[in-house]
Amino acid sequence: MKRIQTLLGDIPPEELGITDAHDHLIRSGGMEVVHDRDFLLDDVDKAVQEMELFLKAGGKTIVDMDPIGCGRNVPKMLEIAKRFAGRGHIILTTGFQRGEFYDHRTHWVATCTVDQIAALLVAEIKEGLDLHSYNGPVVERTTAKAGVIKAGTGYGAITPFEKKVFQAVALAQQETGAPIVTHTQFGTMAMEQIELLREYGANLEKVVLSHVQRNPDLWYHKRLLDTGVSLCYDGLYRVKYFSDNVIANLIHELVRAGYQKQLLLSMDAGRASYQKAYGGGVGIDYMLTVFVPRLRSEGLAESAIEDILIHNPARIFAIDKA
Prior knowledge:
Blueprint (H helix, E strand, L loop, with lengths): L3 E3 L2 E3 L7 E5 L7 H5 L8 H13 L4 E4 L9 H10 L5 E7 L12 H4 L2 H13 L21 E5 L7 H17 L3 E4 L6 H10 L7 E4 L7 H8 L4 E4 L10 H13 L6 E3 L20 H12 L4 H15 L6
Helix pairs in contact: 2-3, 5-6
């Protein structure tokens, strides 16, 4: 029986609703925060305020993509999820960010075997999330489970550390049936990620590549989609890279080309300066209050919008293994 694993338990896919497929509500630390304090998102009340705005705009589910070792805070995420019980859903991830955020010599990914790494990921999906996010020698599992697996690569190259993560992630997917969501740095190494996951036995129809819009080459995106993966377009109102019309045009062109079943949408508002609750930018709800109405005004069919926001996430994030 297919199910979505939210922080408060399993729901049927049809209850997922309008979904932000890649965002960030809490980040309590990690190397991203060390590099830039704007990445610190550690206030439960502010996260609640941001999600409240998303629900008010018509949203239902946020997939929180902060993984192991990058400030994931399971207790705080559980507190947020409980405040929205019966109104909204949160899916939490297990897995890893790109390799530069981990010590390639001493981190347990470097010192453990691929099978051992995969087993720790599987446990967070099948048994329960570690309250400490595997940050130390003590493991305390909650009954809440991860619903997605993350892996990432850096700009223009994939390191041996990252290849090891991709192999472990593929094994964990085979064992659990959970979807894989990847980080591409500025849209690079996307095809190489696909080739690795295919080599390691992953189900590409349950793989979502993020941030590929940073490399807005339509020909390239079609090649990626032809492998069976899906793309999550994010970073709306990120004018320092390019204006929203670039992402909107990609969506229009790909829908016309027949790829609407392989597209998802998110804000990826993972900085305090991007969120209204922290006194920053346009907020997570911008996706629904401004960008989606824009797509409608430009003539995108309602069926395509429903696929991108509702039906595609419901299919991809569904887990169908015991």
